[in-house]
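Bug: token stream looks shifted between consecutive jobs. Job 1:
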Amino acid sequence: MTKIGFIGAGKMAQAMARGLLNSGRYKAENIMASSPKNDAHLLDECKSLGIHTTHDNTEVSHNSDVLVIAVKPQHVSKVASEVAPTFRREQLLVSIALGITIRYIETLLPNKSRVVRVMPNTPAVVGAGASAYSMGSACLDGDSKLVQDLLSTVGYAVEVPEVHIDPVTGLSGSGPSYMFAVIEGLADGGVKMGLPRDLSIKLAAYSLLGAAKMVLETGEHPAILKEAVQSPGGSSAYGIHELERGGMRALLTSAVESASIRAKTIGEQLLPRSSIREEDEQTEEIVHEPLQRRAGGRR
């Protein structure tokens, strides 16, 4: 059975570990997580799941087929350099660090190391995440399915070109935060009109949950579903008018754009200048290249 290791034991690593166990496809004895001694409390949840824990990152690497780097972006270089001396070609490294490119991680590891970049989101903690992932040039044919199986234990997962990862970060990576703000705003409206706060929050949350399920299960464009709710002269039409007058659509678009740019900037701030130039050149080459063509190049 595939052995999974997590370097970093924060909420996302915990969510993924829990999802793996709940799927029934992985056993606790085949999962290990590490965390620095000053963050030892993060391992408490991992211990409660029955998985192995340690403060030694190299121990996790040594005992893993798939090594998940679940640390903050500024710590990726240190962690990758730490495990590099013993990293094996048959291992797969999966990074969920914001803004850190595949190419940069590859430069820190032995030649031809298999690297995958993932952007998950926080609803993974309740099994309703949305993750996008990109495969490195040295990945093997079965690696994409392995990553897909791993990520699908905590929600929806899709493979995309790496040039799309930063926009994914701005959309689904940060998206839950936007939706929490929407729920809060709707609930404020309910309170203003006389509803109790707890009821307002619950009704707002269920409204977003139901709307999302309708989009996913009907396959209809959101505009069509929106139109179907609005009766001529009805309350929904008046409400939508206020949202459009306030620029809601433009604000959401700008939020995605701003967060996407910020994700890219964070990564660039941590990269050596030479690496940034190389990344930009590679992006120009692949930005219009079909995903199927790149995938076909794997061994």
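Job 2, same session, no restart:
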Amino acid sequence: MKNLQKGFTLIELMIVVAIIGILAMFALPAYQDYTKRTHVAEGIQLAASAKQAVTEYYASNGKWVTGANTNNVNAEAGINAPSQIKGNAVTSITVLADGVVNENPTATSYKKGNTIDILYNEKVSADKDATARMVAWATPGSVMWTCGPKDAKLEKKHLPSNCRTDNSVPAKS
């Protein structure tokens, strides 16, 4: 009589487990990068209202928000306090007035405006203080924004592709 084999042998099961382990070894780092990129994009999206408020303030007043009237740049720009703008991976969004040049831009030069700092928590960086920075630049008739990491704590690979600049004066087109 023939003895029919039912099920898998131990060696077959071990091979399947090893293959799954190898696949997971390659998939896990890619997934971790994906989740960090998603968290960083959340911060960029949350900062969109601050960008709009700063741009509208400049368009209405012909100057950047300084916080001189309220001693609070976020409030003067018309947005919530930094600690009230939070997300899943975002600790705060702060509008800063440091380095603001309240002069009219010319056809050959941009004038630096407000800065928006997006502070992330440990979901983006183990340091818990990785920061993306957006900088406004006045051009004749419009406002242009650059975006990039504030320092090395936020890796550029986690930023959206349109947000990987060094926030220096943009090139004239």
